[in-house]
Structures
1.
Amino acid sequence: MQKYLFIALGGALGSVARYVVGTNVSNRMGIRFPYGTLIINISACLIIGFSLEVLNRHANVNPAFRYLIPIGFIGAYSTFSTFEWEIFSNLNSGAFWIAIVYVTASIVSGLIAVALGAALGKALS
């Protein structure tokens, strides 16, 4: 039962964080290019890389944190389905190059963020 509470808590925090980050980024940078989703996805990669590296290195950490952070928080915070919809919408509207730049930036930056998060987790463990 405890794991479900941690997933629910993480999910609630992740969904609120997604809304706050997405709204703030869109208000500052506009909505023509999906900057908010891009920043959310890259920061989610950083957080999951960091949290899983730390959790994997410290067996003494309460296993419930696996439910709280990578499953609950990141599950609600990350926006892969939104990412896919935005690509689809850009392609349908003829914004081919925006879609290509967005896919490329997301994949390359996401892999770099996961690696940086894991390196940070390793360094701090």
2.
Amino acid sequence: MTIETSGAAATPAMATLTISFDPARVDRDRVHGWLSREAYWSAGIGRDVFERSLANSLVASAFMSDEQVAFARVVTDRATFAWLCDVFVAEPSRGRGVADG
């Protein structure tokens, strides 16, 4: 599933923002870099653990054009419980409406 923002409702900063829930679209090298080197809550996370976390979660990625600028994942039983975690917006995209919602 992909959601695109455009038109009058989108701010200029979000004019080309696309949100995708397709795990195949995750830029795994980029997101692993963010989580292992920049996010305090997962500093040093190994690639194998990161890959398992993606395989066992719902994922959301934000793209400006074709560049991934944000990521989040949801741990859920798909019935009654969901936990939003690993929310990360790349430094250059912060404050531009990527995570507004």
3.
Amino acid sequence: MEEMEKKKKNMARRAHCLVLAYPLQGHINPMLQFSKLLEHEGVRITLVTTRFFSNNLKRVPPSIALETISDGFDLGGPPQDADSHKAYIDRFCEVGSESLAELLEKLGRSKDDHVDCVVYDSFFPWALDVAKRFETVAAVFLTQNMTVNSIYYHVHLGNLQVPLTQHEFSLPALPKLQLQDMPSFLLTYVEHPYYLDFFADQFSNMDKADWVLCNTFYELDKEVRVI
């Protein structure tokens, strides 16, 4: 009888997915919508953001748990200028890695709360390393549209050299692009090289993720081909 009750309890346990979102509304929204879709399929969701940004979250459904980690700036948010943003990201990598590991360890102490999968914003490549330390399935989530993602990916591969010296561009799996079609951070690379490096670095270890998820639909990005 006791063994039967244990089997029933194990069968009733839902898969638990931890969703780590970058602390900006344009990143929180698509990951929250994705979380709702997962929840609709029976997945238990814990949404994770920074301690400071959690104060801005007003519309998280009560069925989605909310946890926070430290970015090293618990009394303030991400700075706007490039020099300060680099310091912020470097600090976030250091403190956030440790804080995320502590959260996974805390949740892992309970069989019911154990995390089965980490879905992390592509701006946090370090989150993949943390998830793998806990032998947890990891999925990277790209919040920007596929054309922009593809352009940054080609920068990462070295297929697109900056500063830009052309006015027309032919890149694999993309339609022909004009200079005005390019993301602004390619056009301002000389003045602010850090931002483009930041966007390209999101692909640094993406090949090691178990899943790559994209915030798009066919009608929006139908000219972008899978390669």
4.
Amino acid sequence: MAHVIESVADLTARSDRDELEITLASLSAKLLSATQLIFWRLASCAGELRLQERVRLTERRVAVADSNFHADDLPTLDSRAQLRACYDGRTPLNLGRDASGQHGHVFPVTSARGVVGLLEIYHPGPMGEDQHRLLSGLLSIYRNHLRILDYSEYDELTGLLNRKTFDGSLAQLVRADAAGSASARRPGDARRSPNPDQCAWLAVLDIDFFKRINDRFGHLYGDEVLILLARLMRGSFRDTDRLFRSGGEEFVILLAPTEAPGAENVLERFRKAVEAFDFPQVGRVTVSIGFTAVVPGDSGLTAFGRADEALYVAKSQGRNQVLRYEDLIQGGVLHNKTMAPAEVEMF
């Protein structure tokens, strides 16, 4: 019993979600004496659910996947019919015996937002009722812990990430990008080498004339515009992109590594989607967007400052447009400078 309590304490002490997944997988394998365990994270790509293998544990080794992945390279959830059935039913499923005679089971990993992952587990024999209850209880604790993290990390109105999580998310993205570049230099690494023209991008967007919306229609409709805009954002960007409400009518997007034209295209496509959307009572709403490349050594302060400068130009030149900071520097509209911390007020 003592080791179970210690395991729960270890799990709930984690706040980093990547570390939390690894801890859950390790504790589950240990408590169940599993011969093999795979933690699948669910990722959405173009409206299709895909399986990202985050952790694979065997009796001899632990393998943790790189969080910097290409969604198009991941297998689809539909390619594993039994995992799909577990996801749809939101209930554990007996997989039967595999080729080596091991008994397999799969459990859904849930949060307040639904099924976010799957635990695929193998033992020499069928899972007993006590083991089943033990893992189900651990997953309930995990779900409750995720709910607490969601409350502290997500904006209550829109459901997007809040400004409190921005710096950590940017640092994580920079680390993942650097790790991907480093792995490409290691001989014998079979993973696809990252394109040197690809980098992460930070975009700041602002709803045009939002004060007029509040003044004319009231704050209730203003809040509805924010909620619907957040919904459009979730439908327009990849699962690997991170979406934030930074305060008021301002939002921040961290785009996973891609080429400059790709970043501009996805932001422009989103701008057009907002312009074409019919907001109830309010009608037409537009957004202005400034964006910049995330470079080594960037902090939230410096990267946000560059994107915010591009946003300022977009708003001053007529609004409802997407402008890239680096293009404005090259065109002489802005002058490159090293920004001191006092020059930028974050959010």
